[in-house]
């Protein structure tokens, strides 16, 4: 694996593991109070599900390649995270929020998509 793959994979996994864990352990009201107003549009279960998808994606990006067991799952997990970011961008756009969250989400989405390419290359 290239150094670029490991750098992108580690940063991506760290970002999604942190974001997903936060959604899993904090209440919907706590998240909304912390600036995640988008949670108002979703049920508490949906917010937890989004957090779970992010945590599973973060683990899926690193563990298969690290263990050598089904390493093809790493780029698949990365594409899944990229699609998650597409959904997040749509939610923020529909809410007509500032461009700042969309830029962060776009960067994460592009990084996730690039990870799949780096794995194949």
Automatic annotation (TrEMBL):
Keywords: Membrane, Transmembrane, Transmembrane helix. The chain crosses the membrane at residues 6-25, 46-66, 72-91, 103-120. Its main location: membrane. It holds the Pfam family DoxX_2. It is found in: Membrane. It is a multi-pass membrane protein. It comes from the Bacteria. InterPro entries: DoxX (IPR032808). This is DoxX family protein. It comes from Occultella glacieicola.
């Amino acid at each position: 694996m290239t150094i670029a793959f490991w750098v992108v994979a580690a940063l991506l996994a760290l970002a999604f593991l942190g974001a997903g864990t936060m959604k899993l352990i904090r209440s919907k009201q706590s998240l909304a109070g912390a600036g995640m107003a988008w949670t108002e549009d979703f049920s508490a279960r949906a917010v937890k599900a989004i957090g779970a998808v992010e945590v599973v994606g973060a683990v899926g990006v690193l563990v298969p390649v690290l263990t050598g067991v089904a390493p093809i799952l790493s780029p698949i997990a990365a594409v899944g995270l990229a699609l998650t970011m597409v959904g997040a961008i749509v939610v923020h756009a529909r809410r007509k929020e500032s461009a700042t969250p969309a830029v962060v989400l776009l960067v994460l989405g592009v990084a996730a998509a690039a990870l799949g390419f780096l794995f194949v290359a």
